[in-house]
Design a protein that fits this description.
The chain has two helices and 15 strands. By secondary structure, the chain is mainly β. The strands form four sheets. Strands 7, 9, 12, 14 and 15 form a five-stranded antiparallel beta sheet that branches. Strands 3-4-5-6 form a four-stranded mixed beta sheet, with helices on one face. Strands 8-13-10-11 form a four-stranded antiparallel beta sheet, with no helix packed on it. The radius of gyration is 21 Å and the shape is elongated. The relative contact order is 0.18.
Length: 211
């Protein structure tokens, strides 16, 4: 098969007759398709389906989606999702999120925001879903703090199958990276909590604006 200047395959008169194979090759060769998705769940499912086909997100073959719930276009080139046209980081660093069960306060999610040469204002949001809760627990959100005691935002879980939503904004000097962490904090003397470790139910999103 031949290729256009855009890298799209097409059959020539000398190719063997193979309609199914030709159509598949054409479909797979179309670059930069923006796929409409309803939300982060469909976005992640699409990325997983691509990976299962042997085409994971990469610098040479990035994934694009148009999210109906946020009205934004996102790109994944193998190092996480970023909003096209804005500086954004979404997802979790390797090994997170953690689901538990937990009986003491614990770190459950982590995301690193890389450094850039200029000052920024970062807006951070996170959501955690508890599958089961015994006694009183809070969700906490912190930036550049290594313990839950340094958390700057907290929200209480209402009970089993409840979600806690947290948000904050802060200034970040040029040349400085930031580490966003989500925690669970036991408020009562005893208790346990089990979180969903699925990224659709435990999210960290960061959007940066030049200060």
């Amino acid at each position: 098969m031949a290729q256009t200047a855009d890298g799209i395959y097409y059959p020539t008169q000398t190719d063997a007759f193979n309609p199914a194979g030709d159509m598949e090759a054409i479909a797979r060769s179309v670059p930069g398709i923006i796929v409409p998705v309803a939300n982060v769940t469909e976005r992640n499912a699409y990325a997983a389906a691509r990976a299962a086909e042997g085409r994971p997100a990469s610098a040479s073959d990035p994934i694009y989606v148009d999210r109906a719930d946020t009205g934004t276009t996102e790109r994944n080139s193998g190092s996480g999702w970023r909003t096209v046209g804005a500086e954004a980081v979404s997802g979790h660093d390797a090994g997170y999120p953690q689901g538990g069960p937990f009986t003491i306060s614990a770190l459950v999610g982590l995301l690193t925001v890389p450094a850039v040469p200029f000052n920024r204002i970062l807006t951070v949001s996170a959501s955690l879903t508890a599958l089961s809760v015994t006694n009183i627990w809070d969700a906490a959100l912190s930036v550049n703090q290594n313990t839950v005691a340094g958390a700057q935002r907290k929200a209480r879980f209402a009970g089993a199958n409840s979600a806690a939503h947290l948000s904050m904004a802060f200034a970040l000097p040029g040349g400085t990276a930031a580490t966003v962490r989500t925690w669970v904090e036991r408020v009562s003397a005893t208790g346990s909590i089990q979180l969903s470790s699925a990224t659709a139910y435990h999210t960290i999103d960061v959007t940066a604006h030049r200060a």
